[in-house]
Amino acid sequence: MGAFWRWLQEIGLLRLVLGVGRKPLFEYDDHYVMLNDIGRNHFYREALENFLASCPGCAVLDLGAGSGLLAILAARAGSEKVWAIEANPHLAELATRTLERNRALYPKTNMSVIAQLSAQVDADALGRKADLLVTETFGTMLLGEGVLTFVSDARDRLLKEGGQIIPAGGCQYVTLVQMSEPLWSPPSWRGFNLSRLEDLQDTVYWKAMVGASSTEHIKLSKRTCVLELDLYEATPEQIPKNRTFWIQMQQSGTIDAAVFDWDIWADRSKRKVLSTAQGSRNFAGDVAWGWLLQPQEEAAEGWRFGDHPRRQKVKAGDWVQVAVEFIATGISMHLRARSEHGAVGLEEDMLPPISLPSRLHGIPRQTIKEANEFLLPVAGDQERHDFYAEALQGAVRELAARPHTLLDCSGNAGLPGFYAAKHVSLRSLVMPGSEHVASVLRHIAEENGVEGAEVFAGDPREMFDVLLPEGRRADIVVVDPPGTPLQGRSPFAILPALRKELLQDAGLVVPPLACFEVGLLESQELSQIFSIPNGTREEVDLQVWNEEARRQGLLSRMVPYTKWLGGHSTLRRRWLSQPKCVYHVDLNRYGRAPVSGEETFRRPLAVEAAGVVHAMVGRWVVFAEKGPAARRLGAESTYEGRDLTWPQYVQAVARADTNPGLLEPLPVEAGAVQQLEVTVRLGAAKVTGSAGPEFTLQLVGTDQDDVSARRGDSVRRTSEAPTEL
Predict the structure, then answer these.
(1) Range of the domain at 129
(2) What's the pTM?
(3) Is the residue at 337 inside a domain?
(4) Is 253 helix (H, G, I), strand (E, B) or coil?
């Protein structure tokens, strides 16, 4: 193993490159969406056909072959010999099956899969050197999957002198933008100034993957190439540590972020281009590669950052100096920007090493990551805060005696606790998980004149004596909605202990009610995340991938997604049956007694529009109080931050009689009633170790198919009585 691979192993990236320890394939968007990326497929097919038209007997090396699609396209274009090199043994096995399935179409081509890293392939063992090297080992960053290391090695050892490379090169681009919504700069809410939360912004290392988004940011600058590569000549050693650029602003505004995307070109003429820029791909292509967004703050003299992020305001015509640092020979890169007035006395080769702003020193990387992925977007969710304020007021009204103490265990940036202390005169105990977040929240409380609120860091289940030393229990406890965020505190995990140790017998939970709702969705684009519609792409039989998805439980498991089903996604979809609550949870009763067992029942789903069902989609909804007119909070919102923090769960649907390799969607008629069989497991009956109920869903026909189902009769699969929460 070379020095580069030893380094990858040390920092944990070798597992990513090799796919070691990855989840089942169908849970990973990249394999399926890349096969469904129409622009990508056309780009490579055309490039291969153009080359092999003049060299029909040439040998082709597919580097990082994945599915083997490019190898098959090379065979179809006339290659005499094709090697598909894929280091991930699971992918290599699937590629082998795919090649075998298509071998009869190209009997004159000798195709083989080599399950090794290309750096470990012995050139002599191939028997001859390749005439053409083709690869698509690009990440969301151009060099994010180490393509330059792989290509330079294979180019020198496995490609004949004068051989060709597809693509010939590419360029990493950067655009400075003003965001349409301040996702990482929470606005004030009901008089609470939340700007102190911006101190948790990571404007250096953390980046948001925002592909397949319809949100149009204001482009303040032109798209600027910050790193151009010629794959015929470039080596990892030639990647600079950093570079500086002067970029002229095209519009006036505030630099909120830098957007990273890239282009590659088929040959050195650069006429045929594949781009990841917004609007250049279909939905699958955007999910496969997307683009990255790095929040920005203005760098001062010496490229230093202040104690509090300061946005850089610019006018059209201004020049901004940008410094780009290339990490690990370009696998990652970070950008800093400053005005021309701050660019004093520092040459390009004297750029200081990039590092976190001093305000983030000493904070664990995981804490910073969670703050940027969840805490800051949630803090800007005004509708969410209004919901919690209303639910809190409802709990106060419901309690017979005037409440005294509130315990805020939610991830809502302390606002429920601060609101209760300032406007309801409750003693509030706010419980973030990190001391660093707690420190910021204490500053917010002080700056907003909040009295009667204390902020503690840690898990409330481990701090009973600290939180309530006098033995008086809390009257109200505030929790997150179930399932939000994926890495947050599940109310199902903490409520049993809180109910036992910290909450009064008559104490209330905010929000008090939740339900899991399920709807039927028509969306061929969504199906491209987990299957190959019709089983073919570019006239290549890819049914092996659908068969594998079935084998791994695609039709019986729900997979959580954020972003792709949100209101700002470009995903085209249509509800054929609007989401309906199929399972209710009274959070005020949950945790009063141990719950366990398995229950199966049926719920009718009325079909409002004719079409074909590609998936069932489930999501949690919470209610501020009891009653049909109660305010609800769910996944749907005009605020983009909700898309990033509220998961929706997708389970693929296929006709019962469909070919295993096709996954044909289920046709439905308007006015029909589909019967949904729901199995709920609790406690020891669960298969997974996650807290709360575990669901298995299955469509079992229409009401005409099952009269007893129309009557709502329950079906029990165990001898236990149904569990009531």
Answers:
(1) 3-166
(2) 0.90
(3) yes
(4) strand
